[in-house]
Design goal:
- Belongs to the cytidylyltransferase family.
- GO terms for molecular function: ethanolamine-phosphate cytidylyltransferase activity.
- Helix 3 links the parallel strand 1 and strand 2.
- The chain contains five helices and two strands; from the N terminus they run H-H-E-H-E-H-H.
- It is elongated, with a radius of gyration of 19 Å.
- The longest helix is centred in the C-terminal third of the chain and has 21 residues.
- By secondary structure, it is mostly helical.
- Helix 4 packs across helix 5.
- The chain folds into two domains: 69 residues, Rossmann fold (3-Layer(aba) Sandwich), CATH 3.40.50; 32 residues.
- The chain is 39% helix and 6% strand.
- A two-stranded parallel sheet has the order 1-2.
Amino acid sequence: ATRGLHRPIMSLHERSLSVLACRYVDEVIIGAPWEVSKDMITTFNISLVVHGTTAENTDFQKEQSNPYAVPISLGIFQILDSPLDITTTTIIRRIVSNHEAYQLADLLGVDNGAAVGKFVEMPTMAAP
């Protein structure tokens, strides 16, 4: 299984643009294979391969199916601490919670905008 519990929420192009918006990203390889090979590292002149600590699928840490085996052996792999627990599952939970808050506010006859702020606390990101 090379994907998380759910299919991606954004399209391939939306995900690519989101990643390209990160200041530390130089290039996005669309259609890249799951396993990072020596040929791929050489062809694209990859200097660093990273993986966040928050992931729905940590199968890569198993010896038999480690897609990062080559970057690890070359010393160019790093695990990056994820500041927030944002996964497909947490996003879906927030959507469901917001929906339930809107439904409850509607039943109570309360202004939905004000009610959601009371029922659902959204996480904030720290400035870089």
